[in-house]
Amino acid sequence: MKNTSNNETNIVLAPRAMSNFVETPYIKDITSRALTYIHAGFPVHFRGPSGTGKTTVAMHLASKIGRQVVIIHGDAEYKTSDLVGSEQGYRFRKLDDRFIHSVHKLEEDMEKKWVNNRLTIAVKNGFTLIYDEFTRSRPEANNILLPILQERMFSTSAGHEEDYYMKVHPNFCAIFTSNPEEYAGVNRTQDALRDRMVTLDLDHFDYETELQITKAKSDLPLKEAEIIVNIVRGLRESGKTEFAPTIRGSIMIAKTMTALKTTPSKSNGMFKTICRDILTSETSRVGSKTNQDRVKKILDELIENFS
């Protein structure tokens, strides 16, 4: 691995397996498939609705790859220079030659200073790139990815001729995540970029995975975690909400119950209130009274059945 400067080292992460990561057969299958494509030399793209574990799975995949990680979070304000780098400031050099005491030779030189950004650092050093929610960046900013992923080289506007063209390190690999295009703030993926990656569509976890994640994240007993997961999945499967509740809802409810040191029960008024507060906010963008009433009615029936 090439040496990196202090500035570059500061933005690189060492991949580590998460201590409470839940690896069910569902997760193992996704990870195994993704690793197959990474080892074959293709970037992997996890696409799916919010709350389907895309970023967590991407981090888990990076830990399996075992190389250092650079993370970029998509942003509509990004320009290509925010990914690749740019000339920032100047470097001055002054030479005062007094080798011969009777001759005084003074030379001054000034040149622009090129500073690499995260994409270039990952490409140059063979790190794993995680580009989270990459479609939130504008397509023109992401165009630089096309030659990197296909031709395995790209050009920069660096001041030194030797840096005009940069080869991609053979160990470099990329993992992308994105939400569906209908989500607010999401741009359409360029066809040319989509064609250069293997896309794995993620949906809501299966029951066992949701249950084990909820239990692991909250330390609730299995039976209590089951009640919460059944309620959240029941609301999702009703199909009567603006947005389907996700695993985040189950985790938030479970963690709140743990913090309050109480249990889910139909006789527990606080549990009902927590479910209503968390799940009505998660399933509606504008918080309409109609949606709130609809969710509360469904939740009352679910809580009665499962608790």
At CATH's second level, what is the architecture of the largest domain?
3-Layer(aba) Sandwich
Anisotropy-based shape: elongated
Secondary-structure element pattern, one letter each: HHEHEHEEHEHHEEEHEHHHHH
The radius of gyration computed from the alpha-carbon positions, rounded to a whole number of angstroms, is: 25 Å
Q: State the CATH topology of the largest domain.
A: Rossmann fold
What percentage of residues falls in helices of 4 or more residues?
A: 40-55%
Number of domains: 2
Low-confidence stretches: none
Measured distance between first and last alpha carbons: 55 Å
What strand order characterises the main sheet?
Answer: 2-5-8-1-9
- Helix/strand structural class: alpha/beta
Strand content: 15-25%
Largest sheet: 5 strands, parallel
CATH class of the largest domain: Alpha Beta
Average pLDDT number: 86
What does this entry look like structurally?
The protein is α/β, with parallel strands linked by helices and 307 residues long. The protein has 2 domains: 6-85 and 117-201, 3-Layer(aba) Sandwich (Rossmann fold), CATH 3.40.50; 207-306. The protein is built from 13 helices and 9 strands. Strand 3 and strand 4 form a beta hairpin. Helix 9 packs parallel to helix 11 (247-260), helix 10 (222-238) packs antiparallel against helix 11 and helix 10 crosses helix 13. It starts with 5 loop residues before the first helix and ends with a helix. The mean pLDDT is 86.
